[in-house]
Design brief:
By secondary structure, the protein is mainly β. It has a single domain, classed as SH3 type barrels. It has one helix at 23-26; strands at residues 18-21, 39-44, 49-54, 61-65, 69-71.
Length: 77
């Protein structure tokens, strides 16, 4: 069962949120293909696992620990 849940960082991600890798996520070698990319949250589990579909990468859905992600910033300000 997949549900949104408040994590240890206090941020609650929901399906449809626009995300990018956090500083921690950028530091992990297995994430090198999506550094600097934007993704859409597809599922959030109660175990702080988030499934993300990366936009324009050809990479479908990957699983991430919540701390590997952050909300994308609005660059139009």
């Amino acid at each position: 069962m997949f549900i949104s849940e408040t994590t240890t960082t206090g941020a609650q991600m929901q399906v449809g949120d626009l995300v990018e890798l956090s500083a921690y996520g950028n530091s992990l070698k297995h994430n090198e293909y999506v550094v600097g990319k934007l993704g859409l949250v597809r599922r959030v589990s109660r175990f702080s696992t988030v499934k993300v579909e990366w936009i324009g990468t050809g990479i479908s859905v990957w699983r991430y620990d919540r701390r590997e992600l952050k909300y994308a910033k609005n660059e139009s300000r």
